[in-house]
């Protein structure tokens, strides 16, 4: 199965022959259609399509009224956009520690980080593993905090029988090439709250209130008889193009087929490694149903090798799928180390003295990351190569015991 096929090519030809390449201001566009189809698929009222998952992360924070100096609780274990987007808003990422079995945030660790300045919590359903949302929703409500679900890696994953992304106030998705569906680059913001949608649109559309869903927008007023264009707030141009949206429509129509293939690939990995000493398969919380973006595997404590050592020893083997040791402990990146030594964010916002990005800040995340690797189960992966990869990993670990 390939990323894209003739259906995507055909719809791109339609867009090109129509010569309408950006969404414009009206209702009629591929982008509007894609938003509607996604809202229907996902089960939320308002969707705004943007040009990347990172833009979706920023837009959703703006939607949740995150402002300079606010604190936002983040996971250290995610692609860096989940926390750098907070910096982009002028706010302060505060990292909470994770469950070492999954690299997912826990409600207990989140609670420890709440202060008077906390405005929002961003949870990440990493690798397509659903977090247990009930207690986290209750915590957010108790402290009157916005709850954002980063679903970049989690399409069609469930907790308590409900899709993840529908528990919090808003969710964001990525459509970058590796994701469950792709428009090359792209992202989506989804919410049931009109105000969140409106603020997200303003941030992503140069401050212009081009709302859909019959939401009322202010009209630009002239100043000293000079007409103004209607930029009401600060904002970027993060709009999705018609080319991306048209492809997104086709990809969305194939998502179930893609997901079935992902699930078959996961079974191949389990068939080779489940029950093998030295490994723990992905931990699944009760009452959750994952839909893996990549399949996470943990080396047990008694396995002396680190995940990096295992991946290095597999390097150069023929006909395997490349795989990675987990290397996304966000605050260990140079950008956060610089903020830590400067005691201010990249936008010059001072860090309160209790906010640390020093190594050791989230000890469970740092320790667990060394033992995690993840295998690509994208629907285009060659099943034989994936099987070879699992066998190669098994051999490396067996030879080291
Ligand atoms: C959890 C998570 N959040 C946000 C993003 C950002 O998405 P994008 O790469 O489309 O900007 C990614 C992308 O990998 C991700 O995995």
Fold blueprint:
Layout: H1 6-18, H2 30-42, E1 46-50, H3 53-63, E2 71-74, H4 81-88, E3 92-95, E4 98-99, E5 104-105, H5 107-112, E6 118-124, H6 133-142, E7 146-150, E8 158-159, E9 162-163, E10 170-174, E11 187-191, H7 194-204, H8 242-253, H9 255-273, E12 279-280, E13 288-289, E14 294-299, H10 307-314, E15 324-325, H11 334-342, H12 363-369, E16 372-376, H13 383-399
Parallel strand pairs: 2-3, 2-6, 6-7, 7-10
Antiparallel strand pairs: 1-11, 4-5, 8-9, 8-13, 10-11, 12-14, 14-16, 15-16
Helix pairs in contact: 1-8, 2-8, 3-4, 3-7, 9-13, 10-13
The chain binds pyridoxal-5'-phosphate.
The site of pyridoxal-5'-phosphate has 16 residues, from helix 3 and helix 4.
Number of domains: 2
Which regions have little confidence, pLDDT < 50, spanning 5+ residues? none
Helix content: 25-40%
Radius of gyration: 22 Å
Helix-strand string: HHEHEHEEEHEHEEEEEHHHEEEHEHHEH
Provide structural commentary.
The chain folds into two domains: 6-254, Aspartate Aminotransferase, domain 2; 256-327 and 363-399, Aspartate Aminotransferase, domain 1 (Alpha-Beta Complex), CATH 3.90.1150.10. The chain has 401 residues and is of the alpha/beta class. The mean pLDDT is 97. The protein is globular and about 80 Å long. It has a seven-stranded mixed sheet with strand order 1-11-10-7-6-2-3, sandwiched between helices. The chain contains 13 helices and 16 strands. The site of pyridoxal-5'-phosphate (PLP) has 16 residues, from helix 3 and helix 4. Residues 52-54, 57, 78-79, 81-82, 124, 150, 152-153, 174, 176, 185, 187 line the site of pyridoxal-5'-phosphate.
């Amino acid at each position: 199965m390939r990323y894209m096929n003739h259906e995507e090519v055909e719809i791109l030809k339609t867009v090109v022959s129509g010569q309408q390449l950006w969404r414009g201001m009206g209702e009629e566009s591929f982008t509007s259609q894609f938003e509607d189809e996604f809202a229907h698929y996902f089960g939320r009222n308002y969707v705004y399509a943007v040009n990347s998952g990172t833009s979706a992360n920023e837009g959703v924070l703006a939607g949740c009224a995150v402002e300079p100096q606010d604190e936002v609780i983040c996971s250290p274990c995610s692609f860096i956009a989940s926390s750098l987007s907070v910096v982009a808003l002028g706010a302060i990422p505060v990292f909470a520690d994770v469950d070492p079995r999954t690299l997912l945030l826990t409600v207990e660790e989140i609670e420890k980080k709440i202060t008077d300045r906390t405005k929002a919590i961003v949870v990440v359903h990493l690798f397509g593993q659903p977090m247990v949302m009930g207690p986290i929703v209750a915590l957010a409500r108790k402290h009157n905090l916005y709850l954002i679900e980063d679903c970049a890696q989690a399409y069609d994953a469930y907790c308590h029988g409900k899709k993840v992304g529908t528990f919090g106030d808003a969710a964001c998705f990525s459509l970058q090439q590796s994701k469950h569906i792709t428009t090359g680059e792209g992202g989506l913001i989804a919410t049931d709250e009109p105000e969140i949608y409106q603020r997200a649109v303003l941030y992503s559309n140069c401050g212009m209130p081009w709302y859909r869903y019959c939401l009322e927008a202010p009209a630009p007023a002239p100043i000293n008889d000079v007409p103004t264009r209607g930029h009401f707030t600060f904002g970027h141009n993060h709009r999705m193009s018609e080319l991306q949206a048209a492809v997104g429509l086709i990809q969305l129509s194939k998502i179930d087929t893609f997901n079935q293939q992902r699930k078959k690939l996961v079974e191949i990995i389990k068939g080779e490694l489940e029950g093998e000493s030295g490994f723990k398969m992905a931990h699944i919380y009760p009452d959750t149903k994952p839909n893996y973006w990549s399949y996470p595997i943990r080396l047990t404590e008694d396995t002396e090798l680190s995940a990096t050592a295992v991946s290095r020893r597999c390097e150069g083997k023929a006909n395997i799928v490349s795989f990675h040791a987990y290397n996304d402990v966000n605050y260990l990146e140079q950008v956060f180390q610089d903020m830590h030594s400067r005691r201010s964010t990249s936008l010059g916002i001072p860090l309160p003295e209790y906010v640390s990005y020093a190594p050791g800040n989230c000890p469970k995340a740092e320790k667990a990351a060394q033992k995690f690797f993840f295998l690509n189960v994208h629907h285009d992966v060659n099943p034989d190569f994936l099987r070879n990869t699992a066998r190669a990993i098994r051999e490396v670990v067996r030879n080291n015991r």
